[in-house]
Description:
There is one protein chain. The protein has helices at 3-13, 27-35, 55-68, 91-104, 124-133, 152-156, 171-178, 185-195, 199-202, 207-227, 232-243, 252-259, 263-275, 289-293, 305-309, 318-334, 374-391, 419-429; strands spanning 44-48, 76-80, 111-116, 137-143, 161-165, 249-250, 279-282, 297-301, 340-347, 350-358, 361-367, 395-400, 405-409, 412-418. By secondary structure, the protein is an alpha/beta fold. The protein folds into three domains: 3-165, Rossmann fold (3-Layer(aba) Sandwich), CATH 3.40.50.300; 171-317, Arc Repressor Mutant, subunit A; 340-426, no CATH class. The strands form three sheets. Strands 9-10-11-12-14-13 form a six-stranded mixed β-sheet, with helices on both faces. It is globular. The relative contact order is 0.09. The model has no long low-confidence stretch (mean pLDDT 92).
Amino acid sequence: xxxxxxxxxxxxxxxxxxxxxxxxxxxxxxxxxxxxxxxxxxxxxxxxxxxxxxxxxxxxxxxxxxxxxxxxxxxxxxxxxxxxxxxxxxxxxxxxxxxxxxxxxxxxxxxxxxxxxxxxxxxxxxxxxxxxxxxxxxxxxxxxxxxxxxxxxxxxxxxxxxxxxxxxxxxxxxxxxxxxxxxxxxxxxxxxxxxxxxxxxxxxxxxxxxxxxxxxxxxxxxxxxxxxxxxxxxxxxxxxxxxxxxxxxxxxxxxxxxxxxxxxxxxxxxxxxxxxxxxxxxxxxxxxxxxxxxxxxxxxxxxxxxxxxxxxxxxxxxxxxxxxxxxxxxxxxxxxxxxxxxxxxxxxxxxxxxxxxxxxxxxxxxxxxxxxxxxxxxxxxxxxxxxxxxxxxxxxxxxxxxxxxxxxxxxxxxxxxxxxxxxxxxxxxxxx
Length: 432
């Protein structure tokens, strides 16, 4: 590619000569991350999370905030490695881009370099490490696979890097993006449960088309191509099985028998799907690590849009979608809050959806779409009472769609909380 053509492409990504669309602000990420550049010890911010969660826009929002603080726009270089103009993406491409930038924009000052989807170029670590060690640049790296965190570079820069996990819109962000009136919070939650929180989905009418393309791209780029998968149909079958089984207890052996795949294949493919952030698993709560390791795990998907995309009637699985919404909210918090863990509880055929262990303080949460049926209510409360007795706590919560209240049963206070209130309270408590 000719130098002038290359520079024209680079210029189109950057703030130097024109305004760049930074999207709707997601302050819970951008404000925190921009402030990290005030710490001279931080050399790199790594943004990781599922593809299309908004990492690129957040990186640009950080850049815009730094410019507003007084950093020259010429000191910021954005490199978009997903640009369709580039067929061959390798280490030399990064060098060529940087050379053009230094020659024409910023010849003598240090830089802040944003590398978007860094995993697209083999050897990006060498580029980053070289400039960082010479003090020429600090970096914001985005990537759609947790394998980005396993690179040689991230190990070498231990203590000089910050990892920020980016998830699709949480419920409060979704309200902001979708411009729902606060007075219509129940409708907002209903939509959020059904369509999930990908930013482009929230802003578009062509929701199903977008989600289908996201699923296909994640499977192709973040799993098949990255791990050189040969049994592609089996991978897709397993991914769809997980997405349609949200909230279910699973073992690799049981899936192996059901889908007629080898246990090793199920194990490997599950690992790859989790690394791409499409799904996640939670363990059964037990004081015994052995019991925990030998118990089934529950599976969830990062975003509720995927079950709907696969043609499942969202009305029929509203309860599981609400549970998945709570699970993905807890997963988000667990990636940012120290000593925050969550599990499911199962004893004597009774199950509680979530036990939250926040710095050794337990919180018991049951999710029930509706408790208008007395039998359903009795079942959910009975499990909570057993769990509370085992954990020696005197409070428990039932998250419902539209009911709030409280009652005292056998010395345990049961709080019934509307899902919209519960989600808002926990997000604000942990500064989201």
